């Protein structure tokens, strides 16, 4: 399981918020020795000052390891 939390300051972008938050939680499941399934859910501060709702996301993906030192993957939001 992976947890990520972040904060970023916005410098002088008119019409956008001055501070942004990010939080996400990801889990991985290994299938065999060459494939991992990844699920990630989280949220970010909406940059639009007219909105009080945060942006949310869910992501499902995979990571394939054809060799021990090379991998590639794909995802679907």
How large is the count of helical segments?
Answer: 0
Order of helices and strands: EEEEE
Rg over CA atoms, rounded to whole Å, is 17 Å
Number of domains: 1
Task: Give me the count of strands.
Answer: 5
Main pleated-sheet profile: 5 strands, antiparallel
pLDDT averaged residue by residue: 87
First-to-last CA distance: 19 Å
Q: Which stretches are poorly predicted, pLDDT < 50 over at least 5 residues?
A: none
Features:
77 residues, mainly beta, 66% strand
Structure commentary:
This protein has one domain (2-10, 17-47, 54-76). β4 and β5 form a beta hairpin. It starts with a strand and ends with a strand. The chain is elongated and about 50 Å long. It has a five-stranded antiparallel beta sheet, with no helix packed on it. It has strands spanning 2-9, 19-31, 35-44, 55-67, 70-76. The chain is an all-beta fold and 77 residues long. The mean pLDDT is 87. The relative contact order is 0.22. It contains no helices and five strands.
In short:
Helices cover 0% and strands 66% of the residues.
Show the helix and strand layout:
Layout: E1 2-9, E2 19-31, E3 35-44, E4 55-67, E5 70-76
Antiparallel strand pairs: 1-2, 2-3, 3-4, 4-5
